[in-house]
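Researcher: Please translate sequence to C-alpha cells.
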Amino acid sequence: MSHPPRSRAGKVVGRVAYVGVLAIGFAIVIGAYFALGADRPEAGDCVDITDVGAADPDWRQVGCGSAESDFLIAEVSEGCRPGYATVRRDSGLRLCLVPDVVVGDCLRVPAAGIEIKARCGEPGANERVTGVASNTTGAAACPPGTVRNTVYPEPARTVCTGPSAE
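Model: Translation complete:
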C-alpha cells in the first residue's frame, strides 16, 4: 500500500512544526541551566545572610564587596574547618564562609550564631572592623585598638575588630 504524495504545503508545515519543537526544547534546556546554575554557589562567590536568627540561616548570592555581602565563600564542602562560619542547603553541602568586610564596616556579633554586617550605630552593631589583611599573621596584622582578630587560612585573611564606637 503506497501513501499518497505529500503536498508542498504539508512539507512546509511539517518542517515548521519540527523546527518549532526543537526551539521550544532548546529554550527549556537553556532556561533550566540558568535557573538551576544561578543558585549553585562556588568558592569566590559572596552571600548575604537573610535570616541570621534561624538555627540554619538562609542566604542569597550577591556581588562581592557590596553593602549586602556578608561573606565570601571560601569552600563548598561537606564540612568546614574550625573558625569558619557555615550555612547549608538541603543538599547537605556547607558553605565555608569568610567575612566580606573592609575597614570601617560594623558587625553584629551575636552570642551564638554567625556575625553579619550591620549599619554602624544600628542596635546590635557591637564591633567595627579595624583591619583586614590578606595574610594569616593574626594580631601582628592588626592596628592598635584591635580587640579580636580572626585568621582564615583559605583564602589567607586576617580580620581585626574592635568595639563599635557608636
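Researcher: Any highlights?
Model: Residues 8-37 form the longest helix (30 residues).
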